[in-house]
Amino acid sequence: MAAPLIVLGIASAAYGVSIMLVNSGTSFFAVWYVIAALCLVPGIAQTLLPASPLAGGLCLAAFILLAIAALAFLCMSARIMRVTSTTPPAGLDYLLVLGAQVRPDGSPSVVLRNRLEAALAYLVENPSTRAIVCGGKGSNEPISEAACMARWLEERGIAPSRIAREDRSTTTAENIRFARSFFDAAQARVGIVTNNFHVYRAMRIAATAGVAHAWGVSAHSVAWYLPNNLLRECFGIIKNTLRGTM
Questions:
Q1: Measured distance between the N- and C-terminal CA atoms of the chain, rounded to whole angstroms
Q2: I need a labelling partner for 193 at 20 to 30 A (CA). Which of 29, 47, 83, 87 fits?
Q3: Who's near 213: CB < 8 A, 6+ residues apart?
Q4: Nearest to 177 by CA among 97, 93, 80, 245
Q5: pLDDT tens digits, 159-197
Q6: Cβ contacts of residue 185 below 8 Å, gap of 6+?
Q7: Helices of type H across 21-29
Q8: Per-residue model confidence (pLDDT) at position 233
């Protein structure tokens, strides 16, 4: 039992390093170091002290805990990813483009660029649809996420008159709640643009916020980072549920 835990611990630590190097603006990568420690400490202890009942007990406890956590993660991830294949109808009234990290040079991060590319494709095909770009300025961002997104879309031919800026929000729940001031939540047909792993939570939050007619517009995400993004979403779902925002 020790050897699999050690291998899993090393893999988790290495994966955490790869996430950290992306410099996404969050410290969530540290969760992978915690997982690595939960694996490596009991695994190494049992390897060094094979006859110790305490080391064996720690190893068994870590194995059971990780197995339960992995099962819960897989179940939640399957539910999250099930909604990503939904195709929004043509001619929506608005697109809510949810915010994500802006780089130090003012350009969108990979996650945000993926959302913008999905929004641009829909806006080009549906010229009557307006965009609401959502996101305030974080402490590590040079401009607001809304300003970054509006500039990106305008540079690619979307008229400024089609873009409204919601530049106060700091969370997904605030993105949607503050964006409601731009449309009639009971009547408007709204597309919510975000990455595939984020659609489920965003749609649940929108429903709780009273957006009656909403569709998810799923943007691409990099496969390597999907486990990290899904794990973060699981924590996000728990947080939003506890706060009553979904």
A1: 39
A2: 29
A3: 187, 188, 189, 190
A4: 245
A5: 999 999 999 999 999 999 999 999 999 999 999 999 999
A6: 209, 210, 211, 212
A7: none
A8: 96
Q: What are phi and psi of 198, to 5 degrees?
A: -105, -10
Rounded to whole angstroms, the Cα distance separating 165 from 179 reads: 8
Cα separation, 150 vs 162, in Å, equals 10
**Closest C-alpha among 163, 128, 158 to residue 146:** 163
- In DSSP terms, which residues pair with 38 in a beta bridge? none
Q: How is 183-233 classified by DSSP, letter by letter?
A: S-TTT-EEEEEEEGGGHHHHHHHHHHTT--EEEEEEEP--GGGHHHHHHHH
- Residue 117 sits at φ, ψ, to 5 deg, of -65, -40
Which pTM does this prediction carry?
Answer: 0.90
CA distance 71 to 182: 41
